[in-house]
Amino acid sequence: MADEDSRAAGASPGGRRPGGSRRARMIAMVAGLAVVGAGIWFAVAGGGGSPASSPSSSPSSPAVNPLTGEGAGGHVLAVKIDNVGQAQRIQSGLNSADLVYAIQVEGGLSRYLVVFDSGHAPARVGPVRSARQTDIPLLAPFGRVGFAYSGAISGLLPDLAAANLQTITPIANNNLFSNGGSDPTYIQPAQVFSAFPGLAQTKDVGLRFGAEPAGGTAQSSVRVRMPSASFAFTASGAKWLVAVDGQAVVTTDAGQANADNVIVQHVHVVPGKYTDHNAGHADNEVFSETTGQGSADFYRDGKVWHGQWSKPNDTAPTSYTVAGTSMNLAPGRTWIVLTGS
């Protein structure tokens, strides 16, 4: 098993959005949910808005989904999914995703930001957890998509309200969350797409799909480490089977989590704008810089290629290249692990 080294990523300090809009300052934290899970407290609060506020988007889906390179596209919903402790055994929907981002959070732990399109969404997704600062610039290239999460630290709420996102939370949209929005809570994407018919369509965010490029090196498995989490991907035919913290990720709806491609994107993980004190001690909500440039490793078809990623500004697509040429991914689902340098 190859062990990913942390490589320096020349990312710029961009990717942070200033908060403090008038509308955002009016948002109040209406409720809180204290959850003891790996010693972290998650607030249930957030912006949102009604379905009537969703703007119109393109009336037709792309002929080929630019997020997967296969099938038709559709409206886009991103969901923040818990990935700590018991939550790893009750996850649903990962094998229907277009994209899965694995992101470092406070305490060196990890969370998923999972992207679905309306044509291939599963019946249920979760357990849903709270948003982070990293999510905002990461989702900026997708347009005004739906973003479902269970809450956020109070300082982040103005940033979320100012972002070009249709936020979907238990406070604003309680009927869309199971268990009253309390942990563990799940959503049904069909209900979300019905309630918000104007969510942005799938669009080009920089991924390229096609025939396997020359120059790959055989690779049967790879492990990626965060300070308090680890990911392993093992080749199985044309797929990569996913394990987290030494255990296979077995979803409740579709067996072991798997991917057609894995991208290990080396980024700077820096102190975030906000620090959570709700667990009785300071936990800075770290920020992964995805605007800038750095090294990346691409896994498909039992092989690896080493290259680069580049994103000049928050809303631009991310370019993934090997020796200056776009890296072709295999059509299908891609996991992108943002690992610190």
UniProtKB/TrEMBL annotation:
Domain DUF3048: 72-179, 229-336
Keywords assigned by UniProt, alphabetized: Membrane, Transmembrane, Transmembrane helix
Segments of this protein annotated with the region Disordered: 1-21
Residues spanning the membrane: 26-44
Coiled coil: none
Record's protein name: DUF3048 domain-containing protein
Lineage: Bacteria, Bacillati, Actinomycetota, Actinomycetes, Kitasatosporales
